[in-house]
Specification:
Chain lengths: ~200, ~200, ~200, ~200
DNA sequence: AATGAATGAGCCTTCATTCAT
DNA sequence: GATGAATGAAGGCTCATTCAT
């Protein structure tokens, strides 16, 4: 199901060191020398494996995106009602961010950098197929009247928007409570936003 | 109420040229020479007026934030019910982004840069007083049972989160529809998320 | 007659320092830091004025080529017979190399580098007009039978070839005698190679 | 007579790939990785066989020089008059360049690099003995008055200079005609330059 | 206030060479 | 003999900032 993507020990170390640096100082402010120090891999080797700094950013981004969507699809497989499905999306999102805050920070911050770089065709393909699978999961519930009929582009924002906003502030250290404290509040709110109120 | 802040013709031109560059290539990738070209103001003059590159970023950010909160407070003054208030917040947010897409892009992208730079005390003060006024406006409605009692940190995400998510995607050019098309959907959804369902 | 080409003091110094370095170590082995040292101009300024290393090479080359062809055209203006004309070309060539050995070394060695770089359109134009003027000078003597009728491409090699070969070896320090010692031998030999033996 | 110099298949391939690269991009701009690609031999193997990049250049140069002087000496063995000898030198030179244009380009361009590198003692010895044999061949004709008595250093330039000049331009692609088209013109011109006009 | 030439520290990247397998 | 991952010194070039005019 997943593209075979065994990363060598060396590549793994480089990515891990790079993520630490990118989160701490930002991609632009991170020097290759910083990654060298953080990873213990020589400058020459870093270039041998990735070619340039941008390619490291892209590799990291892909890895983060895949992690999240795999987790989400697995969780969704166990849900058996519209309500469960919607709430699963939210819980899963919150759980992933809680468990992988650095990946999350990185993905939020550099999404546009990567997506505009023209280096991320794999990512595009991945996004499209993930979106298609989500659509297939939810379509029946919309057609049968459990979920409000809304423009397709709107569901993502209604379901994920609130927790995403809170997550961003939590990741920035601007909230008093933990993101996970409001897991059920956001799951519930998401369901309220999209459930069908006319038909019972 | 607002600090007197008449910007000279030259400063205006510099900021305007800088915003264009920052949006197009990002703050880090924008050179002083680029701003010189975009604004028509000489390098020496840019330094004469702003001192360094960071100060331009901060000035631009403050200007954007002020624009939005002023607009929001004015609109809120005319609202006369919990529902109107909540919907006004959303409509105002959508309208401001629709009318100032470049400012919006800039603010979203560089919020953390500015807020971590330690150069934006003015901004902190401004944010605090704005938040206080919002709290005063809504408190009565919460106490009287029109709005659900929720942790204070959660309201922002429930009300703004969905439209913010859509706005971000719209600003990136990833949506088919315009942000303004869903103005009422998001206003309504925000109200659904926070209105009190038990009473009344 | 000459393109206005006042080089600033700074540019002059950079070119002069660069020539010294290029002759001593070769263009590739010359570091910008070497030119900085030799010229006393800062690295930043070197780039401010020339943009990159190649542009320095090209500027130097143009300057050398112009020096030689100007000298040659002036000398030719005083010649008043086919024999004098041919001998003038050779003497002038030998004199110029004798007086400007560094320029000569540079021009011989980096001609192809410059001409293949695509950066030397000015040089192309200059070469063409110089060649046209030479052709106009000699044509009458060919038509009137003082000079052998030969394929046009051949004259250059017959007239300049021998002294050029010796000059190259002299510049490399491989000859016992000075180039100028054989000035008249090469002038005479050139005339022997192209004078018409049939007529007279 | 010739040093035994059977090159292994692998060495041959490396040299051949290297020559292609050196001609196309120049020695300095050619990377070991380029030679690897052009030859199909691994980086490690290239070092195993040659030790470093300079040694490849020198090996290539020696090989080119030897090819030419061997050919010349063989041809000269069949000549039986001063005129035939001089013309043979020129024809042989033109033929060799026509048949080995890449070797010729390489030898012209990197002669000084190799000869100044201190790595080419073999080459020095070879050049000296070749020059001695030429001298022995021509001396009698000079003494007997068939060839002008000139400073010894001058003969090379008078005989080879013209065709060399044309050859250089032909190799650079700057001529309309082929070098071989003027084979007899240059052979004849060389003889005109050195034959004794007084006697006979 | 305005200008733009001058400065030089600093960074990304390259590439010859080594060496373990 | 063959391979290619690993190394790190070195260099071209950039760019924020200064300053004389």
């Amino acid at each position: 199901m997943m593209m075979e993507m065994e990363l060598s020990e060396t590549k793994q170390r480089i990515l891990s060191g790079a993520l630490t640096c990118f989160i701490e100082h930002g991609v632009e402010a991170t020097r290759i020398a910083d990654i060298r120090r953080a990873s213990g891999i020589s400058v020459g080797s870093i270039y041998h494996h990735f070619g340039n700094k941008d390619a490291i950013v892209v590799a990291l981004f892909l890895s983060g995106m895949r992690g999240h969507s795999e987790m989400q699809e697995q969780a969704l497989a166990d849900a058996s009602s519209a309500e469960e499905g919607v709430k699963t999306i939210v819980r899963c999102y919150i759980d992933w961010i809680t468990d992988n805050p650095d990946w999350a920070r990185f993905v939020f911050r550099y999404r546009s950098l990567v997506e505009n770089s023209g280096l991320a065709e794999q990512n595009e393909a991945h996004k499209r197929s993930h979106f298609r699978r989500l659509k297939e999961w939810f379509s029946p519930y919309v057609n049968e009247g459990y979920i409000r009929k809304l423009p397709i582009e709107v569901y993502h924002s209604l379901i994920i928007g609130p927790s995403q906003d809170f997550a961003l502030r939590w990741l920035r250290g601007e909230t008093r409570s933990a993101l996970s404290d409001y897991r059920e509040i956001y799951a519930e709110a998401a369901w309220l936003s999209v459930k069908c109120t006319e038909k019972r």
